[in-house]
Amino acid sequence: MASLERRVAVDAARAAGQLLHREHPRTRQVSFKGAVTNLVTEMDGRAEALVVDAITAQFPDDGILAEEGSARAGRSGRRWVIDPLDGTTNYAHGLPVYSVGIGLERDGVVELGVVYDPSRDELFVGERGAGATLNDARLTVSTTEALDRSLLVTGFPYDIRTNHDNNLQEYATFAVRSRAVRRLGSALLDLAYVAAGRLDGFWELSLSPWDVVAGGILVEEAGGRLTDLTGGPVDIDRPRVVASNGRIHGEMLAVLKEIRGG
Q: Which CATH code of 3.30.540.10, 3.40.50.300, 3.40.50.920, 3.30.930.10 fits the domain covering 4-138?
């Protein structure tokens, strides 16, 4: 029988995703968090409120960290990390590539991750030590053995126009050393697709906890590898991430070292 935590997270992710899906065709109220490239819609807040209320009702002593500002310390030592709408720019433009992410961590160790893609009705779930699934079917990473035969994915910082550490050099290098590099606009789906074997590797220079917590455990539980940019453990509060099927991980880290040093 699934744990209460899993059931609550799955139900909340589905409910938030279905809300986003129903409202998607409508004109969005768009505002900006600093840069004009960092969008937020009223749906981010509505979806977040739905998820936070569902979790709080069942686990009132747990902490909360959510992208649109919901936060509390909690008393249990556990923390739920929530992205109510990962892919807001896609969503605001009518592009159906976005997701809801809910993760649960204790003392820096992620125990549960749920990523729901309402456009495809795809539910990804990973539990520490119990594997990862897509709509209840077991996930396994790809068997691609070499970087030059791999399909990669990445993303760019919101301040790309002003930040010199903007991933453009890394992107250009990987683009000519792999089969291809994609940019989907949802880090949670990037990680879920690595776990599902649709993509072979993912890297991003600077993310937020809610971009990684729910998706990273999917990769690990599907048999892949998740590290920081130099091969060390990921700091989930300041994540800089390389995720892969494990087979091409060393080559990815070597490319990043060549470009970035260290």
A: 3.30.540.10
